[in-house]
Amino acid sequence: MLNKVKGKLISFEGIDGSGKSTQIKLLKEFFNESKRKAIFTREPGGTVEAELIRRLILSKNKKVNFENKTEILLLLAARYEHFKKLIEPEILKGKTIICDRFIDSTLAYQCRGNIELEKFYFKTSKSLIKNFEPNLTILLDIPPSRALHRINKRKTTTNKYDEKDEYFFLNVRKTYTSLAKNNLRIKKFNALEKKSILADKIKKSILALID
Ligand code: TYD
Questions:
Q1: What is the residue range of 178's domain?
Q2: At 12, is the secondary structure helix, strand, or coil?
Q3: Where is average pLDDT lowest: 77-86, 111-120, 121-130, 152-161?
Q4: Percent of the chain with pLDDT over 90
């Protein structure tokens, strides 16, 4: 039902170090300059309650190690808050929402192709947000070795996933690639392309949806 209304949800996905934040920043500038309106938000987070849950999920405290299903439940709890308080009402008003990460992050980072975890995720997610999904997903694809190189150049790591190794990200990337193969809403872009060229391509596919 919600997917049939005028409002649109566009998500950005990619492994850490794919340049997602830079591209979202460039898109935000373009929206401002061209007087287009959109709500920019992120997951986990986007509301006061969900941002609180984000702190738990991304805690770098080495003693904190959630069970896989607990982590999925926490992400879904944050998503439900975000969905009920922001995404659903704004979409119903016809707004465009640009979200830094959404459902595909949970499949790629938490499930990583594990069938039992996927089953658990789909069942629980369905009971909360039904079959709601983005109208368009911008996936920034990059080999993990290159992404890790970019992350290591940063002065500080910002969350616990920034500290994972290449093997972890190879699996995350593999899951993203297979999601893109099976879902037409996911458009995959080469994240190694020049920043401005990539920004133009992303802009084109977003404008084709909202203008
Ligand atoms: P991101 O916004 O890319 O981090 P940063 O603040 O460093 O720019 O995303 C935060 C982290 O959350 C990212 O490492 C992936 C993780 N994440 C999941 O593991 N599963 C999810 O479902 C979501 C939404 C995020």
A1: 2-210
A2: strand
A3: 152-161
A4: 90
- CA–centroid distance, residue 44 to ligand 1 (Å): 7
| Residue nearest atom 3 of ligand 1, based on CA coordinates | 16
Please, what is the average pLDDT of the chain?
Answer: 95
What is this structure's pTM? 0.96
Q: Considering its fold, how many domains does the chain have in total?
A: 1
Sign of CA dihedral 5, 45, 178, 122: negative
* Ligand 1 contact, 12 CB (< 6 A): no
Going from the Cα of 101 to the center of ligand 1, the distance in angstroms, rounded, reads 7
Strands (E), 48-205: 96-100, 136-141, 186-190
Q: Tell which atom from ligand 1 comes closest to the C-alpha of 78.
A: 24
Distance CA 93, CA 2 (A): 11
| Residue 177 to residue 183: CA distance in whole angstroms | 10
pLDDT band at 157 (very low <50, low <70, confident <90, very high): low
Residues ≥6 apart with Cβ < 8 Å to 45 = 51, 54, 78, 82
Pocket of ligand 1 contains residue 8 by CB under 6 Å? no
CATH classification at residue 170: 3.40.50.300
